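FAQ
Q: What does a multi-component entry look like?
A: The components come first, one per line:
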Amino acid sequence: MHLSEGIVSMPILIGGGALATVGTIIGLKKIDEDHIMTTAMLSATFFVASLIHVPIGPGSVHLLLNGLMALILGWACIPAILVALALQAVFFQYGGLTVLGVNVVIIGGGGLLGSCLFRGMLQRPKLRKLAGLLSGFFSVACAALFLCITLLTTGEEFVGTAQVIFAAHLPVMVVEGVITMFIVSFLAKVQPEILGIKS
Amino acid sequence: MNFEQWAVGDSLFHRVSSPFKMIAAICFCFGLASCKQVDAALMGLFFTICGVLLARISLLALLQRLVLVNIFTLVCWFTLPVTVVGRAVAHIWFLSISAEGLALALLITIKTNALVLAFVVLIGTSSVVDLGHGLRVLKIPQKLCLLLLFSYRYIFVIYDEYRRLSRAAILRSFRPTSSMHTYQTYGNLFGMTLVKGWQRAGRVRDAMVLRGFSGEFVALSTVKICLADWLLVIVVFCCTAVVLAVEYRL
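Then the predicted structure of the entire assembly, as tokens:
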């Protein structure tokens, strides 16, 4: 899901950086002093999720969980994802300095957009699983779509690459949806306040 | 588990304080990212390789990292020569390979590798703690610096927690396959990791408040500015200027 360095054109890098900055400022405004620790812990969990490989067919995919982060944190997921992506860049050289903003917009923005519709459904016990499934699925779908749009705005010549990348993400969307569904139903039973569920 | 494998060492790059390295990295990386000419990108790659040699980091480990980074560029090598319309240099079955596509794939490969190496040399040679305090010096909001430092602190704790849970599952004969049962198990494992992280966050926050935490994170080491700091920034600025001069044929 990460866009590597050296591909995207300069206007996109600057635009992505600007959008990510705005998102981060809004997100930071939503985090009060009491919740810094919780947000940091979730950011660390998001980082750990990327280390976990889930088998699918003959291969395996690693979890993204941007939808879950957006469900739990709302706008605060943008700074949390920024931090996790920065750490991934420092530790594993996934992504990098110049594409950090673009990657935050792709993953964080995808998460926010993919899960905003389904947040309300969490309060209804019967729809909870569906909310998890759909937000997991659509968050990865939106992120893959943003990634393709980024590539296509960089140049017409990336049409083939974008198609390959979007197709490669189709199984990831399904697995993310299913796993987010199970995580949401687990959290609703064990610690509903993480999801902001009023019981 | 050591993520910060480049941060330990003794070289010019390890001695320069992190805010200076960050300014140098932003300048060089954005300069290089704006290149559209292969020779300018090669110039950038040359400078970063010089930097890698000066920073005296393990070349073998670096090569292993570059292999992973180049997976995406490999996708570009397979798709771009076919999709870019241009002068055909070869034909494979019904597909024609265009020279422009090959040139674009080459440019991307050089830029990606150069940028990754530059990142390792300029940012990877600092520890995350130094980077967090360096960001504070650069007037980045305190909350964001705290987020970075705390997340870094708890990645290892949460990862250990997750591994403990997954070891327990394996001991109970859990074998991952592509089945609903596997996904449910992963969901529950990860949900439990989240719950534990959440509860730990509450305890840590209480403990910090008890010890008088007021939202300010005090650094144990202060940033001392020395000649090498300025020297590095000036040298990196010059390298960026050379790359851009080659790019715009000045």
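Q: Is there any commentary attached?
A: Sometimes. For this entry: Residues 159-190 of chain A form the longest helix (32 residues).
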